[in-house]
Amino acid sequence: MKFQYADDVKELAKIVNEKFELKLNLERIAFIRSQGSRSKAIARTLMLPSQWRFILSPSILYIVEVISEKYDNLPCEEKAYVILHELTHIPNSMKGGLRNHNHPHFRKIKKPPYKELKEICKHI
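^ Putative phage metallopeptidase domain-containing protein, sequence as received from the core. Prediction below:
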């Protein structure tokens, strides 16, 4: 597998974070793109264990990874929804944990908010 930083994903995440008032500190999240993954997922959110943060970079708590083969060809609205979904895994406290799909915040976005997503894509 190959990895690279995904500045385009980070920029989209900034817009999504602001539009949906998620109040996440995106400076504590690394955004990467992978190629050659066998994952069935379009994207995934990972938390760094405290030992890894101590050794590598104490400022980064989470990684949002998009799978290039599945993410890159999506229309803008779907990309924005994928990023919204991944950011929803991260709690507002940003203390290292992750929310699962049973969390109430996921119920709010179960039906994609197409109006807001289209509005986001107008500005990209």
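Strands lie at 2-5, 29-35, 43-47, 62-67.
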